[in-house]
């Protein structure tokens, strides 16, 4: 009598199928939220923003002696591309187009004016002032007018963004924008305009005090 051969059922148990299906659904679900490929998913679980920041602490106070005489508005389009060695851009690499808008102030430091830099005649009708040359302040990026136009990322970069947030993702392009704005300010006539405006301000002030002749020069 032949003994029947029992077949070994290698099929996945029902509970394992259910768990696998649930994991797959969750992965697709959260990926859809992350990449915004499924319309309405973000609205389904709407987020609420709460500002739990503490009060701002005053760390120091500095007396200002400079006269801000001019301010320049600048805009730069930053095109930053980062490639990986031996890998195509579609796999690993990023390219960001960023519009950076900011301002640079030009000022004259009146705190550097000494007694020898101011000459007044005996009847107080003529005054001569020697001031330091105008200087440029640090570029200030305006977040309300700066924005990313486009971001191209390779597959590996996109997968990395699925599981982690990178708050410094735009830091590199912002730093480049500040750098280029500062360089543009140096090549502009901003400091010359600041000296012209400072001269006009001092002439108007001293004329109102009774001085008939006012001469303002710049140099160390």
TrEMBL record:
Pfam families: DUF4230
Name of this protein: DUF4230 domain-containing protein
Organism: Streptomyces muensis
